[in-house]
Design brief:
This protein has 141 residues and is mainly β. It has one helix spanning 65-71, and strands spanning 4-7, 27-30, 35-37, 43-46, 49-52, 57-62, 73-75, 78-80, 89-94, 100-102, 107-115. The protein has a domain at 26-115: Distorted Sandwich (Deoxyuridine 5'-Triphosphate Nucleotidohydrolase, Chain A), CATH 2.70.40.10.
């Protein structure tokens, strides 16, 4: 699949697979600015890119597990809709106790492209199931 991408910043980098498209689902997104992430404060980190997704596709912004495990950093799971044409900015959270510095060019999140189907709701009675209305913790420990 080919997707149009536009660099909005001179230092922007096209997202890449770290181990190639056969082994990786996510493409690495990189920061175009130095950003200090303070504990407990959400910040939108710019990537300097915009994309044009084909109809029926979304781009999911996901955290990088290494940043979470090693530095207590995470990102807000986000959806980029096919109609959005603005800059991709990654909402990042520092769950640690000290400031963390994102340097220009650092890999900050993953981008996964997925198909989706639009739905139409049909109102009426829903059928029973074995689980029923069992929710949180209903399957045991």
């Amino acid at each position: 699949m080919k997707i149009w991408i536009q660099k909005l910043h001179p230092d922007a980098q096209v997202p890449t697979y770290a181990h190639g498209p056969i082994e990786d689902a996510g493409l690495d997104l990189r920061s175009v600015e130095r950003v200090v992430l303070e504990p407990g404060i959400a910040q939108a980190v710019p990537t300097g890119i915009a994309i044009e997704l084909p109809p029926g596709h979304e781009a999911q912004v996901r955290p990088r597990s290494g940043l979470g495990l090693k530095h207590s950093l995470t990102v807000n799971f986000g959806t980029i809709d096919p109609g959005y044409r603005g800059e991709i900015r990654v909402i990042m959270f520092n769950l640690g106790r000290a400031d963390y510095v994102i340097e220009k060019g650092d890999r900050i999140a993953q981008l996964v492209i997925s198909r989706y189907e639009s739905v139409e709701w049909e109102e009426g009675q829903i059928s029973d199931s074995v689980r029923g209305a069992g929710g949180f913790g209903s399957s045991g420990r």
